[in-house]
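Posting this for the archive.
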Amino acid sequence: MNRRLFLPLLGVALLGGLLAQAQPTPRANLFITASASTPKDAPYSISVEVTVENRGQADSPAGNLELVLKPAGSSAGKPKSDVPTMTDPVSQAQPLPPLKPGEKKMFSFGTPYSASSSFRNRTGSFKANNIGPTGSDTTVTMTVTAR
């Protein structure tokens, strides 16, 4: 075999082997959205709807979906208590089944919070009026994770 042909062929073979190894394996990619809403009529109790969608190319593993609701405010202004109060973060979890690629599942969480008026599909945070002793609006942030 000609030496001039051998070296380029060897280089192409080695480069092809490296590229074949560099191919990523298919993975699950969970996309999670959360929105808070109230009913149209009083009392305006707040619930949170969470949607989980597998945007990856592989099945997702089973796990838990955790929603954490955290009222705003400095810790100095919160009452001291040995038992949970409305000013403490609230954590809730639900089992998350495996999702196939493209599959979407919706979860519903109730909250201990209420609002002074009706609203729909608030993302990131919402205002609740039953946290402090004065009944003024307090911002509550929502965080959702899959574990």
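The radius of gyration is 25 Å. The chain has one domain: 30-146.
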